Amino acid sequence: MVMTDAKNHDVRVARSEEKLDFQLLPDSIISFDRAYIDFQWLYTLDRRKVWFVTRSKTNIQYRIIGQHLPITNKQVTRDEKIELVVEKSKPKYPKSFRLVCYTDPDTGKEYEFITNNMKLAASTIAAIYKSRWQIETFFRWIKQNLKIKSFLGTSQNAVLTQIWVAMCYYLLVSYIKFQTKYRHSLQELTRMIASVIMEQRLLIDILSLKEQSLKKVREPVLQLDLF
Fold first, then answer.
1. pLDDT at 101 over 80
2. pTM for the whole structure
């Protein structure tokens, strides 16, 4: 996770590996939205044998140089090799890459993806990008459940501390859900934990309950006797 102020464009941070604190290894597959499309950066990834999958922009000008593979999946409408034609863009990415058009069977909406991976099936390319939606789900969950839109302090340290605490909590709860094979959503698990946060309850007992049955198992508050 890299945090910057709003003045830094996303792709500038992605291009700057000293800010990322890690290197993208060959055969890595990265997926990102259209805000990250920078052909010079994409060509750098390709030369390092890092695979990328992203959605195509409507204003990208290209020409089709051939079909990539015969289409066997009914959701895939196009699988072609393309190359850039604009004089300013072509030197930035001189190689050909792949354009995959895929129709979502649930919504009927068509999506266009570009990638430098020529080996994976077109449906797999679409599935890789679809898995990126988990990032948006994560952002929504953070905002809804951890109140990250409002901060307890206004200093940089206070804001970053609250964000990191939220991240740690999310990872711990996700790990608990994964390890225990908890059937319900992260949101329900969070509500369950919040309901008994001030009580001495075994976590394994909480996981075996439903949200509606929590009130039945709460211990009554013991009243102190006066003598």
1. yes
2. 0.69
